[in-house]
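Students often ask what a holo structure prediction actually looks like on paper. The answer is less mysterious than it sounds. You provide the chain, you provide the ligand, and the output is a string of discrete structure tokens encoding the 3D arrangement of the protein together with nicotinamide-adenine-dinucleotide.
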Amino acid sequence: MGGAGLERDGAVGIITIDNPPVNAMSPGLPGAILARLAEAQADDAVEAVVLRGAGKGALAGADIRSFGTPWPEGEPTLRDVIAAIELSAKPVIATLAGYWLGGGLELALSCHYRVASRKTQVGQPEVALGFPPGAGGTQRLPRLAGVEAALAMIVDGTPVDAPEAAEKGILDRVIDGDLLEGAVAFAGERIAAGPPHALARERTPELRDPDIFAATRERLERRARGQRAPLACLECVELALEVPFDEGIRRERAIFEACMASAESRALRHVFFAERAVRKVPGIGKETSVRPIESAAIVGAGTMGRGIATCFANAGISVRLMDSDSQALEHAMAGIRSEYEGRVKRGRIAAADAEDRIGLIEPIETLERVAGADLVIEAVFEEMPLKEEVFRALDAVCDEGAIIASNTSYLDVNHLADIVPRRRGNVLGMHFFSPAQVMRLLEVVRTDSATLEALASVLALAKRLGKLAVVAGVCHGFIGNRMLEGYTREVRFLLEEGASPVEIDAALTAFGMAMGPCSVADLAGLDVSWRKRKADAHLRDPAKRYSAVADRLCELGRFGQKTGAGYYRYEPGSRAPVPDPEVDALIAEVAAESGIERRAIAADEIVERCLYPLVNEGARILDEGIALRASDIDIVWINGYGFPRWRGGVMHWADEVGLDAVHATIARLDESGDHWEPAPLLSRLASEGKGFADVDRAA
Ligand code: T1G
Ligand code: NAD
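The corresponding structure tokens follow.
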């Protein structure tokens, strides 16, 4: 709960809000602040009050952990503190450092003045938690910053830094040097100047662009797909113009409360904590030693190798890039250069910085030249014998302590570790996603033999690379790709049964997926998975249903966008999918060959058929310990596969649907179809009336 202290410096009372680590407004804290405010009011020697956060000075807003449990009866709230400040005859000066976000900024907005250190960030990030600000932010911010600036901050949730906030009128002064001294000096000036000390609520919001609401609404609706919070934010800001201040505050609160109770907000709050839980790996702590990685090497300069090299260069780490095919290497270096040049042209990076980064990537032609690298990432073709050969060669040239990682998508990394028995402890998987320099997700595949030090070193490196690392155990496809197989399998079955590519993509994008699976396949290239299916054909159970739809498209040379045709057709130079009657005919033909009677399939059925295999496989992955927690699986699917964040990820979404309902559907599908045997963990949780979150809580 934390507390608040009051000190005095001349005529200035200093209230310090103390609730580590980020001074969030846990129950009890507003009451403590109110008490200190009352003391300051009662003290005749105090003529102004400075309000600040302890520690690094942040005020991160409401305590997100306390949401979902009712606020203790009779306990004062942040809004009570805000009301008391606005009634104060003595000016209150919010003194901001670090992050002042959400309720933290709202508290500051209610004060008479705001000063901040230069590095401070202020923002209303509530939309990212599925609700608009609920303590007056949508009414006060437009009155201080103008409607356009406030709308952008509240709808997008992106914080702004202190100089920008001062420019917008949110801050009265940016202080260089000692913040508290500067704040006390500012307070002295205000005391000397005397009243009036204006409040935000007394101002009129300024609107420059009368079309801003319509334009923003259109933009939000285009990308909303059932998401409510961004539009709720807009409605609240609109109220600042339409109704008197107090009514605006009341209506903001009602909208806030409705949003807070929504599945969308539960999901987004789940993701907030999931993103923080994922960094915690049992056995790894501050005491675990981490090897510095000053130089890296990448073997294989294809699509992935070149993207991974760019990641290192962007992080300022020098990297050697090797390919056995000199043309491939040249092509990779030219590609890297042209990508940086594109970014320079678009103003994303300065030309000199781009040159510096390109300079960090050294093309090398022989494997011997990887000697001396602290980390080597193998990214050659997805073929085990080839990877074995590369690992053997690396064994001969790498430094003793070098970490060797494979970027394999599916293959057995334990087996690769066995290829280099002396180095077993230093072998891991680093599964980047394509394009590697863009995608934030990284699956760190923990082999049975990897030491904690090697794992911790790779996790620390991932952070430097700006990646969101998820630890996965070794299995075919790890977390993400292993789950993906059931998803794409059902897509093909649904096509045979009567759904068109357009219908399937529409059902899943309406659900919130970033792209439909047929469009994704066309983008990624159908040939990649075709090659894999051919290679794995001998592993397939011939008694089980198999759809040849995708294979038949490939046999026609329809590899997706790169050949101008896949599940859809593409006009030259265009990425817009055009439905293709040829594909419809081919699917009908394949279905007829298999004796499948085609029917109309509703969007709900498409969603269940495609997404329940993810839940079922996710349950197995969790049960086997391949993922440390269900929420890690959510992180993988949100960041690697376009699962909607506002649905909380696959496993959280299944919990929301109810595992008993999910299980019942899977069990029913199991009666008539292959591949649907319910995962034991799913059956158990469903029968106990529990969810995957209960497994996480128990861990
Ligand atoms: N409540 C509870 N815990 C919080 C918290 C919060 N608001 N913010 C951070 N933490 C915990 C976090 O879980 C982690 O704990 C530790 O602090 C350090 O965080 C009325 C209703 C402030 C920019 O959305 O954006 O106000 O995992 O690892 O990278 O309208 O945390 O170590 O146990 O993220 O330095 C609005 C959310 C609330 C801000 C710091 N506020 N926080 O980042 O450290 S809603 C937010 C952040 C609200 C009002 C409404 C970031 C940060 P643990 P960290 P960081
Ligand atoms: P790619 O075909 O684009 O590139 C592979 C490169 O490896 C080629 O340039 C080839 O010349 C080179 N190579 C082959 N044998 C070599 C050897 N002995 N020494 C040095 N170089 C050699 O392949 P990719 O798509 O970049 O995939 C590489 C790895 O990354 C695979 O294991 C793949 O499964 C994995 N992966 C791919 C993706 C993706 O979306 N493409 C995503 C994640 C992981």
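The pocket of nicotinamide-adenine-dinucleotide (ligand 2) is lined by residues 299-305, 322-325, 328, 379-382, 386, 390, 407-409, 431-434 (CB under 6 Å).
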